[in-house]
Amino acid sequence: MAAWRALMQEAWERSVVFTQFLCFLHVFSNHVCQVHQCLGPSMLPTFNVAGDILLLEHLSVKFEKVRSGDVVMARSPVNPRVMVCKRVLGLEGDRVVVLPTNSKGHIRHVVVPKGHVWLQGDNIYNSTDSRHYGPVPYALIQGKVCYRIWPLEGWGPVLNREP
C-alpha cells in the first residue's frame, strides 16, 4: 500500500511540473516570442517562396515599437485564420505612395488613419497587401520578425529596411 501511495505522489508531482511547463510555454509563445513560417512569393527576395522559418517577437507590438520598414506577421484582414508576412510601409498619419497593382492603375497617395498601418510585400508585383484591402488595424499585428532561423544559409537577423 505504501508503494502505491508513493507512486501516486510521484505521478502527481510530475504532472504538476509538466503542467507548469506547458503554461510557461503558452505564455512565452503568446507574449514574448514564437517560431512561425512565412510561405509564398509576396516577400521575395527577402524570404523564399518555399517558406522560411522565422522568430517572431511580440514585445515590440505590445509596447508600440513597430517602425516603418519592419517586417511583421499579422492576421489577414480578409481572412483572420490566415497569417500574412509583410513590411510596414506606413504608420498612422504617414502619407504613403501607392503604386498600382496592374498596368492600368494610377499612382495615388493615402494617409494612414489613426490606429492603422500600411502593410506591403517586398515583391510588389505578386503580393496581396494594403493596396488590395487598405490600411490594416494595428491590433491585427501579431509580432515583429527579428530572426530567420531556416534555411541555414539565410540564418540571421531580419533588418529594418526603410521604404
From TrEMBL:
Keywords linked to the UniProt accession: Hydrolase, Membrane, Mitochondrion, Mitochondrion inner membrane
InterPro entries named among the record's database cross-references: LexA/Signal_pep-like_sf, Mito_IMP1_subunit, Pept_S26A_signal_pept_1, Peptidase_S26
Compartments, record wording: Mitochondrion inner membrane
Record-annotated active site: S42, K86
N-terminal signal peptide: none
Membrane recorded as keyword: yes
Stretches assigned to the Peptidase S26 domain: 17-98, 109-150
Presence of keyword Disulfide bond: no
Principal localisation: mitochondrion
GO terms of biological process kind: protein processing involved in protein targeting to mitochondrion; signal peptide processing
Pfam family of the protein (one): Peptidase_S26
Annotated GO CC locations: mitochondrial inner membrane peptidase complex
Domain of life according to the entry: Eukaryota
GO molecular function, one term: serine-type endopeptidase activity
Family classification: Belongs to the peptidase S26 family. IMP1 subfamily.
Role noted for this protein: Catalyzes the removal of transit peptides required for the targeting of proteins from the mitochondrial matrix, across the inner membrane, into the inter-membrane space.
PANTHER family: MITOCHONDRIAL INNER MEMBRANE PROTEASE SUBUNIT 1, PROTEASE FAMILY S26 MITOCHONDRIAL INNER MEMBRANE PROTEASE-RELATED
Description of how the protein assembles with itself and partners: Heterodimer of 2 subunits, IMP1A/B and IMP12.
Protein's name in the database: Peptidase S26 domain-containing protein
